[in-house]
Amino acid sequence: MTSGQRPAPAQRNEIVTRRDELGLTNWDIALLIATVAIAVLIPIEVVFGPLKLGWLMVVSAVASVLFAGDVWIRRTRPITVRGVRVVNRAQITRRYLRTWFTVDVLAAIPFDLIAVIPGIDGSAAADVLRVLALTRVLRVARMLVVQREWRIHTSINPAVLRLSFFAFWIAIVSHWIACGWIALDGAESGHPELAPYQQALYWTITTLTTVGYGDIVPIGRSQVGYAMVIMALGAAMYGYIIGNVASLLANLDVVRARHLGRLEAVNNFMRDRRVPRDLQAKVRDYYNYLWESRMSEQSEMLEELPAPLRIEIALHINRAILQKVPLFERANESFLRELVLHFTPTVSVPGETIVRRGEIGHRIYFINRGSVEVLGSDDREVVATLTDGDFFGEMALLSAAPRNNTVRALDYCDLYSLERDRFDRVLSEFPDFAAQVREVAERRRAENEPGG
Ligand code: CMP
Q1: What is the pTM for the complete model shown?
Q2: In what order do the strands lie in the sheet with 344-348?
Q3: Ligand 1 center to residue 223 CA distance, Å?
Q4: How confident is the model at residue 4 (pLDDT cuts 50, 70, 90)?
Q5: Which of 201, 309, 361, 425 has the fewest CB neighbours in a 10 Å radius?
């Protein structure tokens, strides 16, 4: 193959990671606004006749210019297809022609403005043009793409997003139905005190919600036919809303819902087993604390991720503890990466014995938040109080001997523990860290000696 046959470097598609949240430029935002404006404006124009208001004509003209510009740009604007950035112009154009091109071009042609040009205005052609203008509204379907993109790419609560789009679609569909009702002369009877649009919207809402007061009734074949279709649509929409809104609201705070579900199950279990009330309260407090501190979520979430991402997330989540423990202050990146993946977050309730003197030690603990007391050999006298950033449980691991002291939680403690195997590996791989831990252990041992 000669070099001439190869695609130029700039034309070669590449794999991309999406770093921006929505990837929305000011241009995209302007287009979105114009799209919604046209979706609202054109049906009004069709039912009320040619635009009388100058500013509405300006909106329509500006939207046309924006849409035309968009067609021009999209011919060659790089796109991302399944994570691959397509920069090859021919490929982009082909894809565009196959997908949105027709809808975008129709939206860009100002049929409604052409219809008011002197000479055309008032003729039969003007009526055809006004109906053709309805094709401009089709561009609103692009909102479905935006909706899908946002759901995938933003950190906005998905339930909030779904509710917002849901409200948007209901509003826009109601507007179209109301315009349709006006077109069928439906707004001419009923409530003379209301403007025709108000009346039509009122009829739409009472019909869509299946309330149907009956104060505005369809007259004639076309109105009755239209009303039947809208009633059927209303019933379907109503069912959809009832089914979805409940789950949407429940999902607004998934973590909270899951926590409450778990608490309920635990409560039922404890009631069934007649667990004493004060113990029940303690268990409940524990779960509430777990939820408030978001400790319970961490390990489950991390398991699903591939290793490199898991490390990034773990580094981020555990940043607080890494900054707090003086031992880690000068540690290098690879040390922290090794450590952070194997931390197990645990919570201790006030008064809980975390480490018992004489037991075999299996792990070392780092305190993220809270305080513990270390008891002397009589298990009564407090020899030390440890708090945020301190660690304990290293002595038994270093000397392969039973625990030297009992350690008890003074309040709710967020702890990170490291299993013996991991701890040993970290010690052998990072001698500086090992030396520092040994030094602390020696000092503690000396302090615990009688007269130390
Ligand atoms: P280990 O013997 O494994 O379990 C009890 C832990 O208490 C011990 O490790 C130390 O981490 C900790 N400990 C013992 N003595 C002291 C002390 N004087 N000051 C602080 N911590 C201590």
Answers
A1: 0.62
A2: 344-348, 413-419, 363-369, 391-392
A3: 85
A4: very low
A5: 309
